[in-house]
Amino acid sequence: MVERYLECLAAHDWDGLAATIADEGLVREGPFCDVVEGKQRYVAYLRKVLTNLDGHRLEVQRVSHVNTRLSYVELTEAFAIDGVTKVWPECILFERADDGRISRVSVFFKQPGAQ
Questions:
Q1: Domain with 76 in it: what CATH number?
Q2: Which is nearest to 109 in space by CA: 63, 66, 77, 71?
């Protein structure tokens, strides 16, 4: 289910992405401590943000399934700001409900250490 979510996210396939998300109880915690609750709100949020990013690309480096309910994904998102491509390395924690669909998404940015 996580792999399908990522495929749909990269393709901006909002209906396909919605099918991977639990109908009830979805919580998305973002890297800025922002919270989006509910399947419809989350899909609308992604649609609004990602379709407005110039040249948005998503590249998955690794998917690690801890068990049937918990997965970590390391990925990079890239998009242009004022004509310059910016790259955002991330780690996303996915939790799945009893039916296997995604019920919680927690997004963390990776940052270089102090020099």
A1: 3.10.450.50
A2: 77
Token couple for 54: 């110039």
Q: Tens digit of pLDDT per residue, the chain (115 long)? A: 999 999 999 999 999 999 999 999 999 999 999 999 999 999 999 999 999 889 999 999 999 999 999 999 999 999 998 999 999 999 999 999 999 999 999 999 988 775 6
Domain for residue 46, yes or no?
Answer: yes
Residue 114 covered by a domain: no
Tally the domains of the chain.
1
Cross-sheet strand order for the sheet of 102-109: 35-37, 27-29, 102-109, 84-96, 70-81, 54-65
